[in-house]
């Protein structure tokens, strides 16, 4: 075991053996200089305020002002020299978030925090949650600590430390938050050369999903047009579901095609696996950001029904490397670019600028994902001595249901390297005449939402 693993195990032991440590989330969930209130699920008036400073330190104090019980989570955060203060909104009492002291002489209870492998813990005897009266969330958080310990123990017992092993482990992880956390952990290990090799493990026929997640036919999903809060929540929830599947699709191509051999006897280089580990890490980031936004809007992932339409394409292409790249990592990823302008405009028109900024992050990353799919599709075609565009179009006609639908985001597609000759011939013939107008409309929407 490496020194890093020893340190991690020792840190986890101290947390597991001290039952007062409560897991509260991945550090990426918490924006610097923003107040996060954790509700106590065991005792009243034991809620905790969490604040992250600009140096990535975390501080936790009682959320109720020790003066007259004002809600500190609604107060301002001010920097005064080397102090970071939270100001009570009722009577402007100030409290140093580091030690709970106040210029008024009052004292606020503070709680020790700890970060272990990007997981944040608060030392409190009470179970806490970002959602009031949400025991399921707390149970889920406790489960994450246990599963991480089990994963490390399993690694020690099996001695396996290959990328394919971890890919299958993630595919078999049902909890999407744990799936995202493990994705970031494995990506860090891979890019720090702490994973021995790619290896080969047979992936499951379908990724694991939580029992309480309702999955229905794609045609029955109702997303709305973003004109109401409920509609915007539905759209964000749908995107979070897509990102969850996108994580799995990235790990599946890594595991399923890890032993691909080309006619010249060569196999996929490590750069291929690095590219798709990065894609998986991006998708996990997207899921975390979307779920955070859902919570800010009063919802959470799993509150609505979802579909597994994306995995149908994975099943169809499970035995053909070129078709997998073409359908999943080019057609579907590029479709994400196509719907961005209209989706962005819907949120923009409702003055939901936080969601607009989030959608822009997803969009920029998805361009690189299309580029990765295209890059390795061309690489494989060269190995097989196939013509790029002609082969792509053959794969789409054979493995994709129906025609490609305009309007297309030509700007994003061009940046990714997927120019019009790749996809315009795949439009339904009756739509070709309207395509120019639709592309212009798409472009106008982008300009309007800037």
From TrEMBL:
One Pfam family cited in the UniProt record for this chain: Rieske
SUPFAM superfamilies: Ferritin-like, ISP domain
Organism: Brachionus calyciflorus
Keywords, ordered alphabetically: 2Fe-2S, Coiled coil, Iron, Iron-sulfur, Metal-binding
GO molecular function: 2 iron, 2 sulfur cluster binding; metal ion binding
Family annotation (InterPro entries): DUF455 (IPR007402), Ferritin-like_SF (IPR009078), Rieske_2Fe-2S (IPR017941), Rieske_2Fe-2S_sf (IPR036922)
Ranges in a coiled coil: 127-154
Protein's recorded name: Rieske domain-containing protein
Rieske domain segment(s): 22-122
């Amino acid at each position: 075991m490496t020194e890093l693993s020893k340190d991690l195990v020792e840190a986890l032991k101290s947390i597991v053996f001290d039952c007062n440590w409560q897991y509260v989330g991945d550090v990426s969930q918490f924006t610097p200089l923003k107040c996060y209130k954790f509700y106590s699920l065991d005792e009243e008036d034991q809620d905790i305020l969490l604040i992250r400073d600009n140096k990535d330190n975390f501080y936790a104090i009682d959320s109720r002002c020790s003066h007259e019980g004002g809600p500190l989570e609604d107060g301002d955060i001010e920097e005064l020299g080397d102090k970071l203060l939270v100001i009570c909104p009722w009577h402007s009492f100030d409290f140093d978030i580091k030690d709970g002291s106040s210029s008024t002489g009052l004292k606020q209870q503070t709680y020790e925090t700890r970060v272990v492998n990007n997981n944040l813990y608060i030392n409190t005897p009470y179970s806490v949650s970002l959602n009031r009266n949400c025991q399921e969330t707390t149970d889920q958080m406790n489960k994450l600590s246990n599963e991480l310990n089990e994963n490390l123990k399993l690694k020690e017992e099996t001695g396996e430390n290959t990328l394919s092993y971890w890919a299958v482990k993630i595919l078999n992880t049902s909890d999407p938050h744990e799936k995202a956390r493990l994705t970031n952990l494995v990506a860090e290990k891979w890019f720090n050369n702490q994973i021995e090799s790619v290896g080969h493990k047979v992936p499951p026929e379908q990724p694991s999903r939580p029992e309480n997640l309702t999955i229905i036919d794609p045609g029955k999903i109702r997303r709305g047009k973003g004109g109401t809060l409920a509609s915007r929540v539905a759209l964000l929830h749908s995107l979070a579901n897509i990102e969850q599947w996108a994580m799995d699709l990235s790990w599946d191509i890594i595991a399923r095609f890890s032993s691909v051999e080309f006619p010249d006897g060569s196999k996929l280089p490590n750069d291929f696996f690095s590219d798709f580990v990065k894609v998986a890490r991006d998708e996990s980031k997207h899921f975390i950001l979307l779920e955070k936004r859902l919570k800010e809007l009063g919802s959470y992932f799993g509150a609505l029904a979802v579909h597994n339409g994306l995995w149908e394409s994975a099943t169809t292409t499970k035995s053909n490397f070129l078709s997998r790249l073409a359908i999943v990592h080019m057609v579907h990823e590029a479709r994400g670019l196509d719907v961005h302008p209209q989706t962005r405009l819907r949120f923009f028109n409702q003055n939901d600028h936080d969601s607009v900024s989030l959608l822009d992050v997803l969009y920029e990353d998805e361009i690189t994902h299309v580029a990765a799919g295209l890059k390795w599709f061309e690489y494989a075609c060269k190995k097989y001595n196939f013509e790029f565009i002609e082969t792509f179009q053959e794969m789409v006609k054979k493995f994709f249901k129906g025609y490609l639908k305009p309007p297309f985001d030509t700007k994003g597609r061009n940046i990714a390297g997927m120019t019009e000759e790749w996809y315009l011939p795949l439009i339904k013939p009756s739509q070709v005449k309207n395509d120019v107008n639709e592309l212009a409309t798409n472009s106008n929407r982008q300009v309007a939402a800037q």
